[in-house]
Specification:
The longest helix is centred in the first third of the chain and has 17 residues. It is built from five helices and eight strands. With 182 residues, it is α+β, with helices and mostly antiparallel strands. Helix content is 34%, strand content 21%. It starts with a helix and ends with a helix.
Length: 182
Amino acid sequence: MSSRCFAVVSSVLMSCAFSACATTAATTASAGQKRAASALPDFELNTLHGDRLRLSEHLGRDVVVLAFWDTWCEPCKAELPHLDRIYRTHKDKGFVVLAIAMDDPSTAMNVAPYVHESGFEFPVLLDPNSEASNLYNTHKSAPYTVIIGRDGKIASETLGFEPAAAKLMEERIEKLLAAAKP
C-alpha cells in the first residue's frame, strides 16, 4: 500500500474513532426538537445504589440535564465536574442532572469507582441495554447532553464538550430555572 493511500485510510479510520467520543461541542435546538412533556418518552433505569429512577418523576417539574457518558471518554470526564458544580449550585431550585453511564459490560465495573472517587452528588444511572440512549442519544455519542426545561420541552442538545462552553451551559440552565413553572 502506498504511503498516500495509507494516509487516507488512516485519516478515515481516525475520523470514525473520534466520532464515538466527540471532542467538539455542537448545540442544536429547533422547534422540531421542542417536544411537549407528555410527548417526551419516559425511561426507568437503576441508579448506582440499586434504586429505580424514572425520567417522568422530573418532567414538567424540574429543569433536567441528561448527560450521556462513558468511563473511557476523556471529554466526558471533563464535562462531569462542571455539571456537578452546576448541580450543587442549583439543585434546591428544581434542577437535576441525570448522568447516564453508557458503559458496556467490559467497562461497566469502572462506573461506581469513578463516581465515588470523583464525589459527584447528582444521580448516576446505568444504561447497559441502551434504553435511555435509544430514546435520547440514538447515535450513542459521548458526551451527549440534553437539557429539558420545566415546560417539559427539550431546550438544547449538545454533542461533545468544550470547557469554554461550560459557562454558556450554566447560563442556559439558569435562564430555564428563572422561567415560571408551568
